[in-house]
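Q: What changes when 1,3-dihydroxyacetonephosphate is included in the input?
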Amino acid sequence: MRKKIVAGNWKMNKTLEEASILASEVKGMIEDELMSGAIVVLCTPSLFLLPVRNILGDSKRIFVGAQNCSEHESGAFTGEISAAMLKSAKVPYVILGHSERRQYFGEDGALLARKVDAALKHNLTPIFCCGEPLEVRERNGHESLVKKQLEESLFHLDDTHILSVVIAYEPVWAIGTGKTASAQQAEDMHAVIRRHIASKYGQDTAESISILYGGSVNAANAKELFASKDVDGGLVGGASLKSREFTEIAKAI
Ligand code: 13P
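A: The predicted holo structure follows.
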């Protein structure tokens, strides 16, 4: 059975003190209240990965994740963080291909394929983001764009490595806008993604890969979104910055 995962993407928010308080609160609530076998991931700014990991300790249900890593192994790349560094700091997850990185930092499919390779080489789990902007949805190009994003950055992987990837479908028009995709829109796209993976890797592999939904998930809409059969959890932005709300979202899976 595929893993249920609720991941928080803190983006560029919080000071060290605030981050430590948020991580401690989430950890306490998750340990006390999460009854399912879901996994919770806190994707923090790089600077907070170690302190947050230390707060989370050796928990088997709540982990730390990075928001990006370099495609390079090491060297003269000022300001970058490598997959090897994340591994050495016991950071098991890394978000790759978030739409904000595609949009503001010019990350394209070929670059993301190299980042995915770098992450997998060091046994990190990439949370690979895909999703269409509003104008693409409006001209009904969302299915073909998302399929292309998967092909460009994941379909070079072999049958084993693809199983180590988590996919997050995040329609760009739903990110930070308060405009969530409907449960039906989410389910439709998750089914498209799973069928596309099945067309390349077979049904069993496609059934084993977790596909998360992201875009204005909150405590009020999480249950309905997560009820869809192809939605295996969420990638949560704004609502992950509040411990109680994020915990309620995690409990909704
Ligand atoms: P919001 O939940 O704030 O819409 O952000 C979603 C997101 O980008 C998670 O990666």
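Observations recorded in class: Residues 120 and 161 are 7 Å apart (CA to CA).
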